[in-house]
Structure formats: structure tokens, C-alpha cells
Amino acid sequence: MIDLARPRRHTNLSVAQLWSMGVAIAATALVSGSVYMFSVPGEAEGRLTAMEAQLKSLEAASKIPGDVQAFPAGSVCGGKLFSGYKDQLALALGGSGLDVGVLEIAQPEATQTRISLQVYAISIKASGPYESMVNGLNALSRFRPTLFLDTVSVRNKTDAVEIDLKGRVFCR
Asked: At 121, phi and psi to the nearest 5?
């Protein structure tokens, strides 16, 4: 039962109590912001946009007819794919800081083009830090003969990423 005759007492907070509550709220906000900043890799959005633009460029290039004149200079090897290509790919990716788990090059297949081309299917699975993955993709973009990527899959594993690449190399 509520006693209406008795006056209610209000608890007044002292300045010290208000100050300590304000400091606690500010500290909580600061810690939350710091945790968020450390949980997101720096410049991730910019890098993702750059990778998506590069992927669109590669997709557009893959739709060009399979004529030797359509490929940029140095992107098609002469004759058979040389035996050291696989080792050089592994060294380029390993040198960027990636741990290469799988690197397979399939037997060549003929293409249905005006000029006879051989295509070698290549599959790569690697893991390592995010920066190493970016460096590895940059190394692959400069590699000759060019590895034309058909699929790129990147999975985040908290402190590292796993990358799965499938592509082709063309030879005359």
C-alpha cells in the first residue's frame, strides 16, 4: 500500500558520483571503439574495391575471343609450358609470405580457336596473412606467361586468410 501522507525522499547524487559515472561511460565508449578499430583490417574497404575492380577487368579480358592477337604481349608462352613454371609460381607465392598447400598444373588441352592454343588448367590453394595474400595476387599479376584467373575464393580465418585460385595459362 502506498502511503500518500509520507513525503518522498529523492536521492541526490553528488558531483563525485556523477563524475565517476561519466568517466565509466567514456571509458566504455573508448574501449568499444578501440576493439572495433583493431578488429577491422586497415583500409579493408579500399582494398576490397580495388580487388573487385581487378576481378571485373579480368572477367572482361576472359570474354575476349581466344585469338592470339587478343592477348597482351608476353601473356602467351611459345611452345609448351616450361617445366620450371610450377616451381617459379610456388616461389613467387611463397616469397610473398603465403604458405602454398596445393599447386597443380593439369595436362594441356587444345582450344577451339583460329590459331592453335594449348591451355593448362592451374589450381592453387594457399594461406597466410591478409597482406601476404594481397602481395601474392600482385606477384601473380606480373607473372609471365600470364595466369588468367577464372575463380578467386578468399576465406577469412581470424588472423589469416585462405585463398583458392583456379585459372589457365595459354601456350601456342
From this structure: -80, 135
Report d(CA 103, CA 125) in Å as an integer: 7
Q: C-alpha grid cell for residue 41?
A: 583490417
Residue-wise DSSP of 134-153:
HHHHHHHHH-SS--EEEEEE
Model confidence pLDDT, tens digit, residues 1-16: 556 566 555 556 666 7
User: How confident is the model over 93-110, as pLDDT tens digits?
Assistant: 998 899 999 999 888 888
| Strand 76-77 versus strand 161-171 pairing type | parallel
Report the Cα–Cα distance between both ends of the chain, in Å, rounded: 96
Residue 57: its H or E element: helix 44-62
- Is the separation of the CB atoms in 150 and 122 below 8 Å? no
The contacts of residue 60 (CB under 8 Å, 6+ apart) are none
Give, for 26, the enclosing helix (H) or strand (E).
helix 15-39
Element (H, E) at 90: helix 85-95
Decide if 147 contacts 122 (C-beta within 8 A): yes
